[in-house]
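Issue 218. Parser rejects a valid record. Input:
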Amino acid sequence: MIRLGPLRLHWSLLLGAALFCAVTPHPLLLAGYAAVLLAHVAGHALATLGTPLSVRAVLFHGLGGELMGEGEVSPARRSAIAAAGVLAQLALLLAAVAFRHSLPPEMAEALIRRNAVVLLLNLIPLKPLDGAQAWRLPARLGAARRLRPRDLSPSRKVRREISNLLEKIRDSGKVR
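Output the parser choked on:
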């Protein structure tokens, strides 16, 4: 493993690049591979903003990249962070489709077709791929919504307090 400050480059990154480039290491295919990896990891990183997670480093390897750090988040947030990497890749793919006529053919190939293959592979619901967590997001959001105490929401709490106050006012006006 090569360490460059907070970046960690695993040897399998070379294998991933060779597979991505179909063993024809054209410079623009390699640049596209790097762009796909960076977009993916940037998606994960953006999804950690506002969480107690502390990202210390980024590890790039043959299957992509992952954030290394400390902290705990809810299962729903963990699924959202996993999905964010794939969504960032999707955003890159859509941008490349929109601008495909102005991109060199090898870069368009890397950012569209090969990115789509990597994106779909990442969605396979097996650990350590993002799909293992990302596909759980709808169920986890539903569970979080069911577990959230409804009567503790600020608007309900205020309405309940006003209702209680009005009830006391009505009761105090009754003749006993």
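Fixed in the parser; the record now loads. The CA atoms of residues 148 and 166 lie 27 Å apart.
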